[in-house]
Design goal:
single chain; 253 residues; alpha/beta; five-stranded mixed sheet; 8 helices; 7 strands; 52% helix
Length: 253
């Protein structure tokens, strides 16, 4: 095997490692409730689905409940907005989507809010719902009730029927209560950085055509790193093309 082939093979290995570090595997959008962690019974899923469908029929807002087996080493904040974008929850012209994400393995929960709903389902309201409605039930070990109560509060806010909750959230925020959340891990960025540095070193050593191949691989790495992937599956319901920018709030128990 020639030197160029060896360096190119090493470069592709670096690309694979970097891609794995950047790109989580997302569950399929199988419905308005995606219970990957198995926290909900059939009756719970059916009731929640009915509530979420009624919300969309009334407001066009799309709210999805998702429980996850794992965040794959990422913070729930990072995973959440990428999942919202991947599924494209919310209408394209309104970006009116939201997710209630529960990751029991990491003991993390998040309300992820699309661009168009950030003025309605604000960070302060999301935080209030998480810390006063959802987390007490989770700490008691009752995941279905915590999810249901959280969904009910979010639906009331989006439907414009929660003025008392808005006032309570404002007072809660003014009290200076410390928000709870997850620190964003650095390992994906570190892995990508090390891969790029390694490829540049290989490029300097290899030179010539091998260097051009490596530079092209680096370009592909930086271009495709944030695409995301799916575990597959079919669904009779889908997002409407909405986008997310990281709005919302998180909590731990």
């Amino acid at each position: 095997m020639g030197r160029r082939a060896i360096f190119t093979a090493i470069a592709w290995v670096c690309l694979t490692v970097a891609g794995a570090a950047q790109t989580p595997v997302f569950p399929a959008l199988s419905g308005r409730v995606v219970d990957g962690a198995g926290l909900l019974g059939a009756a719970d899923r059916a009731s929640l689905t009915q509530t979420l469908a009624a919300l969309e029929a009334k407001t066009t807002d799309q709210l999805v409940v998702v429980t996850l087996k794992s965040l794959q080493g990422r913070s729930i904040e990072e995973y959440g907005y990428q999942l919202g974008r991947h599924w494209q929850i919310g209408q394209k012209d309104k970006n009116n989507g939201a997710l209630l994400i529960v990751a029991p393995a990491e003991r993390a929960v998040r309300i992820e809010v699309g661009y168009g709903l950030e003025g309605t389902l604000t960070d302060a309201i999301s935080r209030y719902i998480i810390e006063t409605t959802i987390l007490p039930r989770f700490k008691a070990g009752d995941y279905p009730d915590g999810i249901k109560r959280g969904v009910d509060d979010i639906v009331r806010v989006l439907a414009g029927e929660a003025e008392a909750l808005r006032r309570a959230a404002a007072q809660y925020a003014a009290s200076g209560m410390r928000p709870s959340g997850a620190d964003q891990p650095l390992w994906p960025a570190i892995a990508v950085g090390l891969a790029v540095v390694g490829l540049l070193i290989f490029c300097a050593v290899a030179g010539g055509a091998a260097c051009r191949d490596i530079l092209w691989i680096i370009f592909l790495m930086l271009r495709t790193g944030g695409g995301g992937s799916s575990s597959g599956g079919r669904t009779s319901w889908s997002g409407g093309g909405g986008s997310f920018g990281g709005g919302g709030s998180s909590g731990r128990w």
